[in-house]
Amino acid sequence: MIPFEYRTPKSLKETHQALKEFGADAKLIAGGTALIIMMKQRLVRPTCLINLQALRPLQGIEAKNGALRIGSLATHREVESSALVKRVLPLLAETYHHVATVSVRNMATVGGGLAHADPNQDPPPTLIALGASVKVSSANGSRTLPLEGFFTDYYETVLQPDEVITDLFVPRMQPNSAGAYLKFLPRTADDYATVSVAAVVTLEPGKKVFKDVRIALGSVGTIPIRAKEAEAVLRGQPVKPEGLREAGEKAKGEVDPITDLRGSADYKREMAAVFVRRALEKALETLRKQPKRPAPRPLRSRRKNKK
Amino acid sequence: MKFSQRVTIPAAREPLWNFLMDIPRVARSLPGVEAVKQLDDATYEGTLKVKVGPISLSLQGKIILEERDRENWRATMRADANDRLAAGAVKARTAMQLKELGPKETELAVETDVNILGKIGEFGQPIIRKKADAMLKDFVENIKKQLSST
Amino acid sequence: MKEEQDVKEAVRPQKKIRLKVNGKKYTVEIPTTRLLVDCLRYDVGLTGTKEGCSVGVCGACTVLIDGKMIRSCISLAVAADGREITTVEGLAKNGKLHPVQKSFIQYGGFQCGICTPGMVISAKALLDQNPRPNVDEIKDWMMGNLCRCTGYYKIIESIQNAWRFAKSK
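Structure tokens for the assembled complex are given below, as produced in the milestone run.
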């Protein structure tokens, strides 16, 4: 690794000052799982590493305004094991569980993963299907933006060089909704997906007609892909197997996978169709099995233990 | 890795050919190229800066004009560049072919063969492919722009 | 731009850090580029932790920070400043082996031994949370520890039976 300065700011203000001081040559580090590997290979050569781990406001998982607020420093493992997340958005806990191995999940943070923007990651498709948004902070203030549209290219996001992701907001699912995340892993269990699909379905009260469908795919392009045409095929339509198959076929035309060691572009395209259909089937089955219950109790903001 | 780009330029074949023979001007039509210097009749030296997310490359190398076939309107160039901080090297060969479509219309076909060596090569062929494709697309568009205004 | 600087002449920033390893305090002055695995092996002198793949995949470098498994080959030593680290050397207490170590010996959970420190530390982290895991739970937890010799059967058996040795602590 090329030598670098090391800073551990105690506040966002200090962080922005350090970013200003070192400019484009500085890199933020949290868990560091992706960054350190690239630095070891000299692909990334920061002159200063700014470790965010001391920033308490970026930690924690809690309910806020009817949604989940997940601090950008929350680790994948914290999201996966959080009782709150498992109760309110089990799909999210399940998705974070799919990432790599326990050790990596203990280190890798939610914010770090999003900033890294590898299109093969597991969380983004689920987060996009759930309508998540992120809050980022710069020296001039902060802004909240939808996660859909956050990723612009391989390893690239809309983040400006001086911006820090502080929070992730994930809204609750609508009533009569369920989701599924399927990760196609023909190789090893700790790998990135060859193709992955997150599907969230909302049915009309009779549970026979689609009220809303959100489908997002990972590993099929330079960014996570929201399969809007596949969704349009189902929205407002009765639930039928032919419809699901059609949605899968439509999704095939919306993806642009790359041939690599996880599969050829053609294979991934075919698998995209298969797994879109399967993810929809799984979501529908989860919905069917859901116990009939009264309107969900409102999320009251509570201070949760940080650890 | 092989890349193929085709573009129609609103100029006659001859002025386009003359433009292509101005190597520094042609080189600077590729996004990221800086400081092209002539070393001798057919050799130039230059820098190419490319960025993929957090990965920045500063490639320094030589551009050699190998073939200059005015009769058949064909030119071939070779480039050899290294990233100074040892992330790798790039070897490329480009063949440019002009085809007359009309008195003020010429088709420029650019066939490029690129080999990426070292860490950047191992790192992500698919990323490189997408990036290189985008760069070459910009390259031919820039040539078109420059010739449309003359 | 800083890149133009001759790398050979670049100053290597150093930092003094305080680590608590296996209950003992260490103060070391190291370059910021020092990885935690190298700091533990060379600066602290505990060579039990191994470096297998260098990219955080094989698990041989696994250590516990504040009780949680992490990959020391992709961690910076400076980032561990002030933290409590447990390495394989910290499992035995007063010369008495940890139950998981006794189980690995009894059930033959190793051959060449290079993956073993990582296996044993990871197994201890699992058993701290779940004293009698079933095979699926073991496989899910230990997914990040690779072994080239054993085929994993004996490792799983060792972890599955570690609870038997807990009584004789």
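The first helix of chain A runs from residue 12 to 22. Chain A touches chain C through 28 residues (CB under 8 Å). Further analysis is deferred to the final report.
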